[in-house]
């Protein structure tokens, strides 16, 4: 295991917390990124931050990858992973990403790689509703 990579952006931390709520999820730190894996084997989320305070998240979306590409900042993941349904979301430090949608996509990504019995036994997490600033 590589050294821990601490996420600083509040919304990146929120997505990290949601990922760790899935059963048998472990966090690893390859290539200077945070990787979230089911039972320490198959990754379902990669996260990283840039020097300007922006952050990114890559997820495996075998069913809704075309839908996910409509999110501002989304693109097919590089290194040939896009062909396998991986989508990368990139956000600037001040961006307001659609967190409920990202957390919903996270559920699809986890289920895409989780063992079938584990996936079937787990109820999807509640998607938090964002309150509007007043």
Can you put this structure into words, describing what you see?
- The termini are far apart.
- The radius of gyration is 14 Å and the shape is globular.
- The chain has 134 residues and is an alpha+beta fold.
- The mean pLDDT is 88.
- The protein is built from 4 helices and 6 strands.
- The chain has a 6-stranded antiparallel beta sheet.
- It has helices at residues 10-20, 65-68, 99-113, 116-121, and strands at 25-28, 34-38, 42-49, 55-60, 74-76, 86-91.
- It has one domain: Aspartate Aminotransferase, domain 1.
- This is DifB protein.
The CATH topology is what?
A: Aspartate Aminotransferase, domain 1
What general outline do the C-alpha atoms trace? globular
Q: What's the overall average pLDDT, rounded?
A: 88
The number of helical runs is 4
Uncertain runs with pLDDT below 50, 5 residues or more?
Answer: none
First-residue to last-residue Cα separation: 44 Å
Name of the CATH first level: Alpha Beta
Number of strands: 6
- Quaternary structure type: single chain
Helix content: 25-40%
- What is the count of distinct domains? 1
Strand order of the largest sheet: 1-2-3-4-6-5
CATH architecture: Alpha-Beta Complex
**What letter string, H or E per element, gives the SSE order?**
HEEEEHEEHH
Largest sheet: 6 strands, antiparallel
Pfam family, one: YjbR
Protein name: DifB protein
Organism: Candidatus Viadribacter manganicus
InterPro entries: YjbR-like_sf (IPR038056), YjbR/MT2646/Rv2570-like (IPR058532)
């Amino acid at each position: 295991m590589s050294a821990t990579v601490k996420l600083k952006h509040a919304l990146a931390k929120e997505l990290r917390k949601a990922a760790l709520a899935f059963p048998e999820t472990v966090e690893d730190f390859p290539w200077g990124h945070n990787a979230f894996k089911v039972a320490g084997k198959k990754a379902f989320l990669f996260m990283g931050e840039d020097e300007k305070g922006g952050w990114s998240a890559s997820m495996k979306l075998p069913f809704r990858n075309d839908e996910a590409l409509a999110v501002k900042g989304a693109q097919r993941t590089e290194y040939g992973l896009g062909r396998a349904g991986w989508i990368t979301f990139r956000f600037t430090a001040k961006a307001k990403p659609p967190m409920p949608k990202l957390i919903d996509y996270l559920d699809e990504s986890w289920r895409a790689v989780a063992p079938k019995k584990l996936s079937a036994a787990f109820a999807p997490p509640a998607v938090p509703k964002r309150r509007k600033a007043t």
